[in-house]
Amino acid sequence: MTAPLRIGIAGLGTVGGGVLKVLERHAELLAGRTGRRMVVTAVSARTRSRDRGVDLSAARWYEDAVALAADPDVDVVVELIGGSEGVAREVCETALSRGKHVVTANKALLAIHGTGLARLAEENGVALSFEAAVAGGIPVIKGLREGLAANCVTEVHGILNGTCNYILTEMRETGREFGDVLAEAQKLGYAEADPSFDIDGVDAAHKLAILTSVAFGCAVDFDAVHIEGIRHISALDIEYASELGFRIKLLGIARRSDGGVEQRVHPAMVPVSSPIATVDGVFNAVVAEGDFVERVTFVGRGAGAGPTASAVVADLVDIARGRVSHAFGVPSGRLESVRAAPPEERRGAYYLRLMVVDRPGVIAEVAAALRDENVSMESFLQRGRAPGEAVPVVLTTHDTDEASMQRALASLSRLEAILEAPRLIRIERF
Ligand SMILES: NC(=O)c1ccc[n+]([C@@H]2O[C@H](COP(=O)([O-])OP(=O)(O)OC[C@H]3O[C@@H](n4cnc5c(N)ncnc54)[C@H](O)[C@@H]3O)[C@@H](O)[C@H]2O)c1
Ligand SMILES: N[C@@H](CCO)C(=O)O
Ligand code: NA
């Protein structure tokens, strides 16, 4: 057997704890598969005394995770602290510049500094691996970078945040409140340290920026992602969506065309018949369109200790086998800079919910605001009567330009009879 792979783990929380368990339980299996033992020689976390259910007495303890990254007895640094700056970034840069491989689950770091870190890894002839950073346990980085390497990929879309999918699913199935379900997702270890990253769509955007780079071979461009989260999704919208034959999902969508690369994260209504409509709870889905393979769908658990640790250890297995790929599929110097297609260039259908005063003539005003922008209605719903009071009016449109829709929305917001900000949800038919 070749020399053991010496692993240093910085961060022993949900994911770090999961990695320790996989390495312990599957020590023999992994040694058999790689021809090398995987040994944890160093660890670092904020609290030393916490029982992690695994014997760490043989590993050197570091108060300072950056010092762990410089330990000469470590071949691979596994960064599981989180955050795009500060310690996590320093740990990765220190390790790479000292010729150590880095495995990380840190999508925030990669979305902001991915191209630079990939360059640093190449300069030092080591791996920068991040399967766990996108869609948890689903091998989607490997799937795109290696499995679909023969294709020109023109689109990637999917459900990229387990916390949001869990919240939307529970709200729909049990009628529970947003806040309650979020607290549960935190307890289950799904949410980010700051859960606003989940619910405001930022985490999904981090992942989309990484996927876009791997899928299309362009430099990671997080700033180009249009981001909307799920805070404003109400029980009422979830109910109307079901009635209209849709499910509401937080989606990440990236498309490459002659106009550049479009990247958006926002809640969307998808027809119940669409395969991703039934991807519920903490599950994620990633759908890719390649020119030869056509449509490929990856589904699995997108968050939580076990699935995420599974992806981290898969990266370690690659390193133990001596496989070092370019982080984003091509040498970092060949990652293209492409035009970011703005969200106003979208063309598609929309769901609109308005809270209007129940009095004669209001619907005509709504119809006029839409007509003035050439927005054509597909369906219209008004339930119940409450003369003089607010009632919901829901409509869906035929395909229209986002820019026209936004102008219509601005006119609608100015109508006296409309009592709350109109709620717009894009409809995506995959
Ligand atoms: N939880 C998930 O399901 C999941 C899934 C995919 C990716 N991730 C990513 O994995 C990373 C870790 O997430 P987590 O859920 O395990 O977080 P966590 O909060 O459970 O664990 C973080 C760990 O980092 C340690 N830490 C914090 N600051 C430190 C410092 N300065 N020095 C040393 N250790 C320090 C903490 O003590 C803790 O052990 C994040 O980048 C996150 O985005 C998490
Ligand atoms: N907070 C993230 C963890 C997995 O990346 C999620 O809920 O999807
Ligand atoms: Na993954």
TrEMBL record:
Q: In which pathway does it act?
A: Amino-acid biosynthesis; L-threonine biosynthesis; L-threonine from L-aspartate: step 3/5; Amino-acid biosynthesis; L-methionine biosynthesis via de novo pathway; L-homoserine from L-aspartate: step 3/3
Q: Record-annotated residues binding NADPH? A: 107
Q: Which residues bind L-homoserine?
A: 192
The entry's protein name is Homoserine dehydrogenase
One Pfam family name is ACT
Entry annotation: catalytic residues:
207
**Which UniProt keywords are listed?**
Amino-acid biosynthesis, Methionine biosynthesis, NADP, Oxidoreductase, Threonine biosynthesis
Locate the transmembrane regions by residue number.
Answer: none
Asked whether the keyword NADP is assigned, the reply is yes
**What domain of life does the UniProt record list for this protein's source?**
Bacteria
